[in-house]
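Morning!

This is the sequence you dropped in the shared folder:
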Amino acid sequence: MGRFRWVFVGILVVSGGCAAGEMFDPFVSRDPERCDGMDNDGDGDVDEGHFCSPGETETCGEGGLQTCSGSCRWSACEGAGVCTPGETAACGACGTRACQADQTWGACSDEGECEAGTSRACEGGQQLCTASCAWDFCLSSECTAGETRGCGNCGSQTCELLEDGATLWGICSDEGVCAPGESGACGLGGEHTCTETCEWSDCEGTGNCFTGAERGCGMCGTQTCGTGDAAGPFEWASCTDEGSCLAGETQSCGLGGIQTCGTDCSWGACFGEGDCTEGATRDCGFCGTQTCGADNRYGDCEDTGACEPGATAGCGLGGSQTCTAMCAWGACEGEGECVAGSTEACGNCGTRFCGVDNMWGACSGEGTCAAGGSEACGLGGTRTCDSACNWGSCAGEGECTPMQTRSCGFCGTQVCGGDFSWGACTGGGVCEPFDSQGCGLGGTQFCGSTCGWGACSAQDTGLSIGSGDYTVGADSAAYDFGSAFTVELYVRVAATQPSSLPALVSTRSNASGSTSGWRMGLNFVSAFGPLGVPLIGSGSQVWVPDAGPDIRDGDLHHVAVVCSGPLIYYVDGVEIDREGTCPSSLRNEIAAGPIVLGGEPSITPAYGFVGDMHNVRVWNVGLSAGQISSHAMGTHPSAMASGLVSWWRLDEGMGQTAADERGVGAMTLGSTAGVDSNDPSWTPLP
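The structure's back. Tokens below.
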């Protein structure tokens, strides 16, 4: 009787709080849902089965408002026009009230004995108020909390303690799928048995089909279950009534045709057959051939001839020809030369007639030449035959007789060629006799009787010496002075020099291990004296004047150093300074190597000079102040003057050497006799 009561109560409680389609299990432990704002029965919903949740409000009537009480019941509608006359509404414990004519609610009537969902203690248990507001049976405890027992098919239950102190068996869990020892059908005609652990054993004796069932097979065939040669009532019999192919399948047929398998699994008609076997041949046309292609049809007729063997036809001028066995026309036989009665041009503008025998007659009415032809005439001339076959006038005659000669150009000769015209002027010169022209650097040359230019003379030139350039003269004892000497030259000094003590004229060398020889140069060391003044040196010593102008002004200057008693320095013919006595070590210095202009290539550093120079003279006597002044004004001494050792005018204007007027030794430009990177260049001088 207690079990029945639990089932009844379970149904009663769940009716207000389950989802549609949910199965109620009477052994599940649930608290009844109460009006307390909590999910008492654990189903995820709060206060379900009640009218509202405590504190909730909603509009009512005509602009009224009602509030949910602590018992999950709506309060009376408050405010003017709280309801519509005749309207009814739930109230209290399952009661009802009606709206009065004054739009207010009347008294609540027909209330139950309790508010649905509430509970109270009862003898030995707990009572719940049902949804109809009536007290349910008194629920007493039926087990000890935590106690377990078997249930269902190998399942188990645990006794649970409710919030109100009652106990209830929980849900039966971990059940199996069957009762031990139970048996049942499975598969197709098979059988299995339930084990002691409430699980089905493997299915035994199952087949592949239901007896009497049919299905398609193979090529439109049929199989029946459990009949014919089937191995059993649930096995398929062999496939019967098959066709000859698979529906939709295609295959070749005939001569290149195609046939398709129909829905009844039989081959359809052969379509698209050809008319021959691929590669086969046959004759066609006039000795032609046709070949059967991959599409089983004959191709075009090829290699046909021109005629049918044995056929004859006219040809040429009255001739006849016969078609050979190879379908080609034979030679034309019996033909003449022309069409009887026709005419044609012949010879030189003549005419001939064709006779009845198809042969040409004699040519008549000819001219004297072939139209358009030409021939030589006169002195290399030509005449042309006109359209009437007559010669025109002689044109294009030449101007001379072959091998005839005449003078031409500057002392040249012309010879008349085989074309009756004068050939090129050959053997001529380059100028008219007695003509003159400028040459070199400011020089003049005259044309001689053989029409060639003479030597270039009176050039006013010098050497332009760049960085690393120099000239090399003789290595001669003539430059060993012993008592007195003078070194003079014209020089234009570049603003920038590669050395602080550039050498103008030098015989110095350090080939013996120590520097010896003399030199004349320029000073650009402020500690030695004024910058841009001439200096003289011996070995590793130099003597620099205490005063003098800086000659790096772009002009050409005459500079000189005289050693004869005193040591005197000159610039442009003016004495700029002197030493009381010319040092004996300077007077007696021996030349240590060949004389060089523009640097000291045999010494490191090379003391190179950059600028222009000309008329360099070396004397073994001391010149007077008057002589120096005269030379500075442009007056040159005689080449045979006493004491003059060497004089290089540097006025050649071309070539690789500069002559020495005294013959001691010419200067060679650069480091070799040929053109090299150390060569100075010739330059005109004002």
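Headline: Residues 336 and 494 are 105 Å apart (CA to CA).

More detail when I'm at my desk.
O.
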